[in-house]
Amino acid sequence: MNELAVNVGRLLSRLQSPDSEEREEAVHGLGASVCDEAIAGLVLAMEDPDLGIREMAADYLAKIKGDTASQLLIRFLAHDDIGTRNLASEILIKIGTEAVPALLENIEHDDHDVRKFICDVLGLIGDSRAVDALMQHLWDDNVNVVCSAAEALGRIGSPRAIDSLIAVAEKLQDSVLPAIEALGKIRDPKALDCLYQYLRSDDPMVVLVSVEAVGQIGQVDSISHLTPYLSASDRATAEAAMAAIIAISRHNNDRINIDLPLDNFTDFLFDGIKNRDHAITEFTLSRLSHWFGSKVIAGLLDVLEYVEEDDLKRITGLLGEVGPSVATAILAKLPHASTQHQGRMLDILAQFADETIAPELLSYVHHDDPEIRQKIAHILGSSGFTGAIKALKALATDTNGHVRAAAYAALGWLCSEEEADFIMGGLDDKYSDVREAAVGALIIIGGPRVVAKLTTDLYHDEVERQRLAVTALGWIGEAEVVAPLLKAINHPDAGVRKSAINSLVRIGEVSDVESIRLALSDENSGVRKAAVTALLALRGIESVDDVAVLLNDCDVWVRYHTISSLGDLGRSELAEHIMPYLQDDLDIIKLAAAKALAQMGCRDAVPMLNELKGDKNRDLANVAEKALDSIGGNRT
Amino acid sequence: MEIQMQDQDNVAVLSLSGRLDLASGATLKEQVKRLIEKNTIQIHLNLSEVEFINSSGLGALVSVMKEVRLQKGRLTLSNLASYVQEIFEITQLSHIFEIYSTEAEALATYQTVATR
Description:
heterodimer, A: mainly alpha, Leucine-rich Repeat Variant, elongated, B: alpha/beta, Transcription Regulator spoIIAA, 5-stranded mixed β-sheet, 4 helices, 46% helix, 32% strand, globular
């Protein structure tokens, strides 16, 4: 006797041990052995008193597969113990297509329960080799076997079974329901004529199942057969008809174009969305372009809590399109909703917030959730309701930085200059978001008082406050900021000086540019460049003589910027300033000069540009070539 | 600042050009007020030709938004230059205004509502 056989023998005897650990080890050992005796041992272990051992044996059998395991397991389908029969079925299903030959061999078993189990398992495996045998068992003596055979044929889905299913349904009353279900699952239009007849049955169950089956087959022509059932007195049938029409619609890429009495199915459709039924969700949302009413709005607000991100965006957009009437419905629902639901509804309400709605929201400034408080701040601000200022000031001292930032922004939208002192306090906040929100608020409020406070801040101890102040003054952009900005051109901080100059360009109406002219000799190159841009923007060609001095600046990038800025004026009379730089030592300067002269349309530059066309620096050569094309002096 | 007005299927489209500041902001508010009196509460502002906006101009827009909302109307903006977009972001006005890249995009949203 070989070693394997000895080992297996030992393991088989240990299966009888009173000690469950020993029996468990034996099962592991048998699972690792590849022989029929081991398989038989595992099958025996399925009768072990310990559930864990039975399941372990079942798992090993499922992995081993094969005809031997299948044949042995089929014997267990006749076991007295229902649990063992079910376990054997499960393992056979897991074994799958390898079990089919053994199952087919045993489908004529004397025991009708075994025949029934075999039909069930064949259906769940889904192998089309079983179709002929199952069709024969539609005429089995035992009605349970017939029903299982019909069900199995539906699962396998072979159109070859259609005629047999129709025939057995006609002959055997007890088989009608499973046969109709199977015809639906096969999804072949050949079954439709028969199913339409069953729609007219006196038996409500037959009608219901037929409606579902017609829906599964998915033909557009079936809709006219189903629509009468939308008004069935039996609610289950009516909803089944709607579900069937939805299935047909989905099957046809939502291209059905008929009027449906959707108002009668509002609850059904919105429950479907809540239950994340994808087909119902898609169908319902696609119909909302022409289906609305208070019930629908209420339904949509309800399902906001359940839907995923993409559907949420669609629903939010749709409710937004409905308009302010949604606000009343939202306000009614808000107190009883979960935090997440409240947040979603507030996002919609934000579009309609006005002075009549805002007072209803004041109590939410004390909400536990900072995201809700943040949303409330935004909504109160955008509503224009000045009665919310006190609440927003409280939120501006919230423990959460995002809430404080939202509160300051909102105060900017609502407040007047009188609140400037309070908002200036935001510039001391530890979070930059809050400080920036405060700056934003001050920009909107503007006015002489704010300008005065910001002008003082230009000389604050902290550089960041100085820079925020100059930024804010620049964006306020009123006439009263021009003087402090001109003065800020002499500020100790280069960032402030540069920002002040840039702001003056944006404001535009600057009568005295002397400070800007002096900035052409600032120690900081960024300031000098800003001064070039500013003077040319504010004074144009009049300032060229001043600006041209920087063509010889010590910083190459200032020279580059000056050449480019003069080029942007596009004036040919300025070419004489630029021409010498086509022969500069630095390629980058030659490049800037070439571009500028092209903008000026300077034909005198053509000979030198032609020389540069052959330069070993490809960038320079390309720019020279483009310049020549632009001027019209390119010779090949 | 110039304000040109067109009626596009019950939406008053105002195209602003020039500087939106204290004086022109007042003109804008007046124009919107007249529209509201005539029951025109769907208003779109095209800002493509606005070359400058300051705090008074922003204040005018906020004021106009408030008035339109009070009448249960709708106000949209489009074609903001990058400079104007920047100030909208700094002041967080992008939270309260409906802003679209183009006039056509904005007007299409009014059409969707109209088909209900």
